[in-house]
Amino acid sequence: MKHSLIRAFLFSLIVFLALNFLFYIIGYSVEDLLYLPLSRIAEHPTHIIYLITYPVNWFPWELIEDFISASSLGFKIYTLGGFISFLIAALIAGLMGGSIGNAFIGWLITSGCFILLMILMISIDPFNLGFICTMCTLDEGIVSILITGIVNTLIFGALVFVIALIKGRSD
Hints:
Helix content is about 80%, strand content about 0%. The chain starts with a helix and ends with a helix. Helix 3 packs antiparallel against helix 6 (about 100-125). By secondary structure, it is mainly α. It is globular, with a radius of gyration of 16 Å. It has 8 helices and no strands.
């Protein structure tokens, strides 16, 4: 399969969004609370964006800490799933890029997309702002998303770099 910037971007984005949605639904289904996100989507259709991008809202160490402190299996799946989706998407970007530059730029574009999706979501429907930060303004929510998004981009971008480097040496 041919490796390129576009493939690194598209495959990592699709995998990231699909895995987030899958882990969100599985976590809530295990807890028998699937009606909550479904009723939120019925009332606020933009909430579907939150379902596919929720880990952007947290730093990686917060996801791991929430996994450790979660008292139920469903929420353990939900939080660990957010971390795993970052890992797998970064791994795919590193493998599909072909070169370190293509892989890393593909990852930057992927990260930019999910950061923009989150910002658009809270800008369109303020209901979703409560899931980003409680009692904050739209501007504070945007800053929060930007900070966590950039940190996640850099941390998992380092993984993309290492994977692309290892793959490049093995070829």
